[in-house]
Amino acid sequence: MGNRVIYLDHAATTYVKPEVFETMKPYFCEQFGNASSIYTLGRESKKAVEEAREKVARALGAQAREIYFTGSGSEADNWAIKGIASANKKKGNHIITSAIEHPAIMNSCKYLESEGFEVTYLPVDSDGVVSLEDLKKAVKDTTILISIMFANNEIGTIQHIKEIGAFAREKGIYFHTDAVQAIGNVAIDVEKMNIDLLSLSSHKFYGPKGVGALYVRKGVKISSFIHGGAQERGKRASTENLPGIIGLGKAIELAVENMDSYNTKLLDLREKTIEGLMAKVPYIRLNGHRTNRLPGNVNISFQYIEGESLLLMLDMIGVCGSSGSACSSGSLDPSHVLMAIGLPHEIAHGSLRLTFGEENTQEDVDFLLEEIPKIVSKLRDMSPLYEAIKNKK
Ligand SMILES: *Cc1c(COP(=O)(O)O)cnc(C)c1O
């Protein structure tokens, strides 16, 4: 990574750890055999894929045969939603999800609505938390699936997954969670948490892009997603993405191994940033739960400025962050997540998300606390609205 870049967008993607890359390398040019082939070169590929599957299973408290590799987190989400809907439609056509899901869940649900399914989008409170009471009230005889994300990618709020899982189990309804942001940040045990399906994506925890996995509890009725050969036990055809899968396996192993020290470090950077900005900049608001949030997530709305302008100014000094606007570029609508926690449009538009990662340091935080207040004042000085407020005082 270049000297002068401070990368603070780990929720969007991470770099590949050198150790992960080293593990992947032989599987491009030398150990390239097709895992379905019966000669030694193929069998060795197969063995490496199964070892990676074991590693994913171990990280989740699952069994290896419950792990299916996919082409991304989005694919795992699509498969969970559409695959459960299609395999269980005789039982019912109702799905419950939340108003703050990733577009991969949201738009899969929208698609199913167009196909005659009924979807309840549970609201969240001002911290972004789904209420168990609301969930209980939303359940019908026709409910076949509850899908609630583990931790939110924009505001970092972590849900009461164990309680939701226990309730779903008691009702005999399948429970899926999009845990893409949670892996490596929160300890996960699919048994203790009564999770039936779980999505993850390698590039959010220092693995390569374009590879993910879906955990499907043994006995869960789900349709195949890609029809073709017999790969992934006939559920997801495609010649295996060998280097990708090997990389995912190594990355998840490291993520779980390093979770405690990683958390401690990120939490410290997060808290110093939040507290520093709160102390130095007036008219701001922290979005997401104050404590029950991802260790590296800071999401703040700055009144009287545009998040986009703030991002551009940060980019000029080498800081990579993200705005609270919809990630669908070109859209001027504020994010559905910030709307769901009740922010007015004009405040949502002034939002900034900074997500810390492994290579960030205390110096990065010092730099932010030095520069952001200056940028914010500069931008506010150009705002007629802010002028009016200042003059009133
Ligand atoms: C990034 C992300 C996804 C999508 O994963 P891809 O591998 O990029 O398709 C899904 N859900 C959440 C919460 C994410 O943060």
Keywords:
single chain, 393 residues, alpha/beta, Aspartate Aminotransferase, domain 1, 2 domains, 4-stranded antiparallel sheet, 13 strands, globular, binds pyridoxal-5'-phosphate
Per CATH, the class of the largest domain reads Alpha Beta
Q: Compute the separation of the termini in Å.
A: 46 Å
Strand content: 5-15%
Oligomer: single chain
Number of helices: 14
Order of helices and strands: EHHHEHEHEHEHEEEHHEEHEEHHEHH
Task: Please provide a written account of the structure.
Keywords: 2Fe-2S, Cytoplasm, Iron, Iron-sulfur, Metal-binding, Pyridoxal phosphate, Transferase. One of its GO terms (cellular component) is L-cysteine desulfurase complex. Homodimer. Forms a heterotetramer with IscU, interacts with other sulfur acceptors. This protein has 14 helices and 13 strands. It is α/β, with parallel strands linked by helices and 393 residues long. The protein has two domains: 6-14 and 259-392, Aspartate Aminotransferase, domain 1; 18-257, Aspartate Aminotransferase, domain 2 (3-Layer(aba) Sandwich). The strands form three sheets. It has a seven-stranded mixed beta sheet with strand order 2-8-7-6-5-3-4, with helices on both faces. Strand 5 (143-147), helix 7 (161-171) and strand 6 form a beta-alpha-beta unit. Helix 4 (73-87) runs parallel beside helix 5 (103-114) and helix 9 (259-280) packs parallel to helix 13 (362-381). 48% of the residues are buried. The model has no long low-confidence stretch (mean pLDDT 95). Bound molecules: pyridoxal-5'-phosphate (PLP). Residues 72-74, 77, 102, 104, 149, 153, 178, 180-181, 201, 204, 212 line the site of pyridoxal-5'-phosphate (PLP). The site of pyridoxal-5'-phosphate has 14 residues, from helix 4.
